[in-house]
Amino acid sequence: MARKLPKVDVVIVGVGWAGGIIAKELTKKGLKVVGLERGKERKTEDYFMVHDELRYALRYELMQDLSRETITFRGNERIRALPMRQYGSFLLGDGLGGSGVHWNGQTFRFLPYDFEIHSKTVEKYGKNKIPADMSLQDWGITYDQLEPYYDRFEKTAGISGEENPLAGKRSDKYPTPPMKKTPAIQMFEKATKNMKLHPYMMPSANLSESYKNPDGIQRSACQYCGYCERFGCEYGAKADPVVTVIPVANKTGNFEIRTHSNVRRILKTGNKATGVLYTDVTTGEEIEQPADIVVVTSYVFNNIRLLLMSGIGKPYDPNTGTGVIGKNYAYQVIKGNAIGFFDKKEFNTFAGAGSLGMVVDDYNGDNFDHSHVNFIHGGMISLAQTGLRPIQNNPVPGGQPTWGKDFKANSVKYANRFLTVASQGSSMPFKRHFLDLDPTYKDAFGDPLIRITFDFEEQDRQMAKFLAGKCADILKEMGADHIDSMKDLGPYDITTYQSTHNTGGVIMGADPSTSAVNNYLQMWDMDNLFVIGASAFPHNSGYNPTDTVGALAYRAAEGIIKYRDKGGQVV
């Protein structure tokens, strides 16, 4: 029998970026909020002088224990899904702050085209441009409607950047200037300008200068140590929930965080959520936390899994195309890259920051004419100097030995003589890409794991090949002596790291029959339940998702207040 606690105004499931923003905004309005986090507490002091590549980058100190909970994966429905027991394609964060602690800090706004992608594609190219098996749909919100919330998130995080000449209009400039331009970045800038492209500095959550945000949070500037991705920041220079939004919520006195609390069910009566059931993982005790409003802000997979295990919303059926929970899973296509080797130039690539780089968006979204290519959308192309750590980075030119004396000699020669120009391609939704509960495999509590059914499609292969060619063209203009680029995109490989940009499954829209949440991320089927995160994306863009997650969280916070005041579906 679960122990039942006194009811609170709001219970939040998962305290990362989305949960932290919701907690901050609601507690400032006087609501009593409990945040449940299944991992342990974290603070900046945990990372003082801990530049340990082996511990964090290769042994995944900040990540979820896959022996207790993981995902299962299959490329299509004819294959039995198997559990992911070692990290590969993506990393699942664990602990207070979630993936917002170990991210790189690359903070892009999606393009106006993204939010009305179906309408805009049909309007310009006709309905036959969209493959019959692509489940493309508009988001139920426009860029202009979301823009004020982008601005709020970027000011909270102190994003350092400069205006993207090919993006949507901004209501204000970035709160801090762009980061430094290294010699490699300057080469990229010169080459792309020579090619009549439109380079701009990558928007960065690694502060370019000291900054105080609108909530009064003061943080120091980045030191360019290169330990961002898979690491916590010892300076607090990288914006993460632990140093930005959670302290503001704590200061109100209206927020209680309970770590080591694994939420296993959303409780309900009829069409109302009544609270959550969680297990205290330190004792094994089951606890019921009643609440007037339930807000699910955990990672994509857990958002979907909780809804399915709790019997909330209609599960997606790929055979009929009906149902919404688990629909439109999308990932990222980032294999379209090129590496340039330089015989007579050296670069200090060991230095850098998670979002130090320069980008061109000439081949992203619908920024170029797609009439004569066999895909829609595209991706950003960048040269990023994130700080290459020695264990993981020693490429040699293609055609050279990959072991033995010559390999060692080339590894030394090219250690500081190569640059990567990379694309990050969008991921379009397809009818047979979805998430459901695995019928066989369970977690440590006996609950079913979430199952991914996904593979790259012809859309992805055509786009990746196109973008890889553009990356190679840029390196050629930069003067590389030898260039290796991707020639063909093979099947999706879950064993090799690509990105942690999983999206979809609880998608937003204007129609309850094709979406799970409205544009305030309020469930159509249960108006006191809000599900927030990249699970709301109907597709994934050619960018990192965090800026859009942050913007949607700010809008959802506004929607929760409106619901508290008036009830019903928020409009």
Essential attributes:
20% strand, single chain, alpha/beta, FAD/NAD(P)-binding domain
Can you name the CATH architecture? Answer: 3-Layer(bba) Sandwich
Give the averaged pLDDT, no decimals.
96
Give the percentage of residues in beta strands: 15-25%
Binned, the helix content reads: 10-25%
Q: How far is the N terminus from the C terminus? A: 39 Å
- The named CATH superfamily: FAD/NAD(P)-binding domain
- Give the total of beta strands: 22
Number of helices: 12
Q: How many domains would you count in the coordinates?
A: 1
Any idea of the CATH topology? FAD/NAD(P)-binding domain
Q: What is the gyration radius calculated from CA atoms? A: 23 Å
What would you call the structural class? alpha/beta
Large-scale geometry: globular
Low-confidence region ranges: none
Query: So what's the CATH class?
Result: Alpha Beta
Largest sheet: 8 strands, mixed
